[in-house]
Amino acid sequence: MFEGLSQKLGAVFDRLTKRGALSEADVSEAMREVRIALLEADVALPVVKDFITKVKDQAVGAAVLKSVTPGQMVVKIVHDELVQALGSEAVAIDLEAPAPVAILMVGLQGSGKTTTTAKIARRLTTRDRKKVLMASLDVHRPAAQEQLAILGRQVGVETLPIIAGQSPVQIAERALKAARTEGYDVLLLDTAGRLAIDEALMAEVAAVRDVAQPHETLLVADAMSGQDAVTVAKTFHDRLTLTGIVLTRIDGDARGGAALSMRAVTGCPIKLLGVGEKVDALEDFHPERIAGRILGMGDVVSLVERAAETIDRDEAEKLALKMQKGGFDLDDFASQLRQLQKMGGMSGLMGMMPGVQKVKQQLAGANVDDRVLKRQEAIVLSMTPKERRDWRLLNAKRKVRIAAGSGTTVPDVNRLLKQFQEMQKMMSQVQKMGQKGLLGRMMPGLAKKMGGLGLTPGMGMPDLPPGFPTSGGPAMGGRPPLLPPGFGKKR
Questions:
Q1: Which of 223, 323, 362, 457 is the most buried (most CB within 10 A)?
Q2: What helix, strand, coil percent values describe the chain, rounded to 5?
Q3: Is residue 457's pLDDT more than 60?
Q4: pLDDT reported for residue 197
Q5: pLDDT confidence of 455, banded at 50, 70, 90?
Q6: For residue 147, what pLDDT band results from cuts at 50, 70 and 90?
Q7: CATH superfamily to which 101-295 belongs
Q8: Residues 8 and 33: beta-carbon distance below 8 Å
Q9: How many CB atoms lie within 10 A of CB 463?
């Protein structure tokens, strides 16, 4: 998401930050390019006009033009305005109401309402420890109620039993009664959708709202629908008074204009982002972090949170103990590959790293490919347990067998073994030096390398405006993170 916008804005700000001083003409030219970039990203025209006016009013002021680093100051102004346009602060689903808290899910058909309902239910159950009941009110789409029941079993959340012939209002009344009598904390009501907005759809949803009196009314909108998503959001908000928006399929949309437009047009906060098809592919919407991604500053906080959610603490402790004893083997190597895939693969992690947007073309030329992780894991799994414990057993004959079993080639097997041996050697050095010795040897060399890249140990850049997020992204003149040689390359 926002990939196209990020690349265009990055190019504009690169030119600005390279100039020692800016004139009003320089700022005006840059704002014209920003306007074009926003329009091409499918941001609504009124939103673009308002955004450019606010930025330009601040950017042509004396404080900016006389600044030591005026280009960086302009980037800061754009960053702050992006945060404001996206909603300033993250807003979570509000559960502060008497149980059962009713949440009404609305939107057009095909936007991902049913899947999103199951994702939210899973999150509330696992993360917030709530007892959740889901109910499908879609009596129009074939097997819609059965779909929610199947998803309920997958995520371990109860669904309201299906009774044929009931209307949406009757199902809502039955769901409310069941939620009250059976002690549920949250009731999720998945309403029907249409291919387009019509009066029958709006009347049906309004009738359900009047019966359920939901504490939250969430619009599920497809990020790839662009300007249409804004029209849909405004229509639903005018009729139902939305309390929040969930954007789906953002992993398939490189423009991202819907997020900027919907927040500005409706005034409703975007609360969640659907980032994939899996039941756990749901993220909180943080305006400041999203603004950082757009401007190429990365999103290290979300990266750390994703790691915390996916890393198995017990498994990590076992691995640390094995490392201390020098027993790192191919099973552990495969475990690390699986961990990387859980966190979104190389492409998913790179999208959150500061500076990566600037080197997209270089990365494309390097053929970084997430599928290589699966191939490497397949190679390890094609080995016997004894071979995984001791790679020295792998002679030419065994390598041919492993390559055939994993659908790869012998050179692929050799490359994996080389990577593993390098990692094993590093683990051995860590174990020998100990923590104090390791840090003692690393820090002087690390400081020297960082100085050569123009970075300070704190990853901040010189001459930044006070309070500006110093994550070393391309817009701020930072350098991209370095990948291990040959890691993640197609063969």
A1: 223
A2: 60, 10, 35
A3: no
A4: 79
A5: very low
A6: very high
A7: P-loop containing nucleotide triphosphate hydrolases (3.40.50.300)
A8: yes
A9: 10
Q: List residues bridging with 135 in a β-sheet.
A: 189
Indicate left, alpha or beta for 213 from its phi (over 0: left) and psi (-120 to 50: alpha).
left
Residue recorded with tokens 């320089």: 26
Residue with tokens 């917030």: 128
Q: Check residue 298 and give left, alpha or beta (phi > 0: left; psi -120 to 50: alpha).
A: left
Tell me, what amino acid is at 315? E
More confident site: 223 or 113: 113
CATH code at 3-86 = 1.20.120.140
- For residue 38, what are the CA distances in angstroms to 79, 275, 381? 14, 22, 47
Residue labelled with tokens 């069941």: 178
Distance of CA 342 to the CA centre of its chain: 13
User: Strand 270-274 to strand 282-284: parallel, antiparallel, or no bridges (unpaired)?
Assistant: antiparallel
Asked whether the predicted pLDDT for residue 96 surpasses 50, the reply is yes
Q: Tokens for 421? A: 């041996």
CATH number of the 305-476 domain: 1.10.260.30
Confidence (pTM): 0.62
| Omega prior to 100 cis, within 30 of 0 | yes
Which amino acid is residue 210, in one-letter code? D
Q: Which residues contact 75 (CB under 8 A, 6 or more apart)?
A: 13, 16, 17, 295, 475, 476
Domain residue spans of the chain: 3-86, 101-295, 305-476
Q: What is the per-residue pLDDT for 347?
A: 54
**Predicted pLDDT of residue 67:** 54
The pLDDT score that the predictor gives to residue 249 is 82
